[in-house]
Fold:
Amino acid sequence: MSYRKLFTAILIATAAMSCNNNSVVKKPVYKTAGNIEKTDALLDAVISSSAKAEIIAEGFEWSEGPIWIEKQKMLLFSDVPTNTIYKWTEEKGKEIYLTPSGYTDPVKRGGEMGSNGLTTDNDGNLVLCQHGNRQMGRMDAPLDKPAAVFTSIAATYNGKKFSSPNDAVYNSNGELFFTDPPYGLETHGDDDPKKEISFNGVYKVKKDGKVVLLLDSITRPNGLAFFPGEKKLIIANSDPAKPYWYLYDVGENDSLQNGRIFFDASAAMGKGVHGLPDGLKIDTKGNVFATGPGGVWIFNSEAKLLGKIKLDGPASNCALSPNEKTLYITNDMKLLRVKLRD
Structure:
């Protein structure tokens, strides 16, 4: 090869390398929050000792209700006070997904009126706990083309309006279970003049649309999740006087029986500790990821505390990726991601 040909070949190769380098998209480096606290050696099978909580988005008023949508590779979550659902993707970060999300009436009102808990039904439709509309609603639009058009799945019990549906889960039969505390009412409490139902209930919506009251005894029912097999149900109680996670056996016709305390978080309450038992998720092995005082609590199925993801601000809810290797956490004004293990 002549000198000129060699020189030309080197220039071409150098230019190609330069183009390749310029085309590489650098992944963002995220700030981290909190730390992992191990209480039991069994935690090592759930979360790596090197795991970190990454702050992947922030700037919200009160983030809630995350759900991972695998087909679109996106996380959806509510910003309750702003009546907005955001989406987060690895490529674009946070973007507004849907507004209004929980209150569609033109009459102005105060309080936290947006959507709270989000889930999908067995047909893949987005289902929302709508504080302002005081109902369980279904978005009547494809997930990839969101629109603020909703069908009411359940809005009343015995002719009385719900207070503010908060969190929800479907069973494998396509029946919807949800909690109804007063947090979305304008005063956030049981003394709100617009509260129509005297208790704070846990309900089921049957496939034919009938609403069934399951419990009226929990003071502030909040997050709920089934254990694998759907024979047991955990319900969080976000009451500072009774900061418990309750466990119920699921009986005939989905009646909730043999209620007992799964775990009492009273000892963790105190000055500088933020949060209460709130949203939770359970993986296929029965491990429980429950937002509560000081962060996310991790239990095994026998209520043994394995450890915590300790956070400064209150954590409201969490979501697992389909392979259960990533946990997303709504943490007050932030959205966090924890890569649990490789």
